[in-house]
Amino acid sequence: MTVIRTSVSGFCMGVRRAVNIAMETASVENHNVYTLGPLIHNKKVLDELKAKGIKILDEGEVAAPGATVIIRAHGIAPQIAENLNSMGIKIIDATCPKVKTSQQKVKEFAEKGYMIFLAGEKDHGEIISLKGFAESFKSSDISCYVIADQAEAEKAGEELINLKPDANAVLLGQTTISKDEFDLIGTKIKEFFPSLEIINTICNATIERQDALRELAGVVDAIIIAGGNDSANTRRLLSLAQSLGIPAWLAESSQDLPVEIKSYNKIGLAAGASAPDSLINEIEDEIEEAIYSRQGC
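RESULT FIELD:
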């Protein structure tokens, strides 16, 4: 029984940057430091931030006067930034540069009068921020549709073509969506709007992780995905592994390893973009402990 790690793991650039910014802010600001929502989807890291004095500001909560609020990698809608500024809140922007690019593209297309399709999860922070940029262009009646799959793409396409059959339309995606999902959504919308502009905003780190997982699946008997249940890219890795016909589980900590893992000879270990190296190492150590236990060492 052996453990084989995927060739790509650990924090992605955007997450690492956001965590570094938060840690640096905590070392300078000695009180009233918040993140607007959980900085990343990983309990281990959130506990570390809490220990540094960084609190989570949930939706609907109001920060204390003179507070510092860190914007997470997912970004925020411009309307929320305006509200924070109006309250005299100091904003530290840790939005991922890749998400910043997507926000700018959404804004540019909205200004041109395009109808906007966003491929992703409607409740995901990044999609909420992008939708906010689409709806911030007040001088035009821009329609913005968030689409999770082909069925929703068909419903949105039918609705828009009935409202504005001659509309210019563009499709952008959540940076962590899978390319297969994105392509299927684009194909369906094109049935209604053949001239649909498709802007591939999927992060290279997402594609690299998914490709590395496919490669890993070809040489192992089962796979553990390290990461948070709330992480979109981690859940997609789990779904991808399962779609490849290989037993796979998600582990938020070493305590989440299934007992079945002992029955496999080659265990693959992959990780979402918000899983720190310390968590990956911890899970690998626990798998190796299971190996020694099975071998009677």
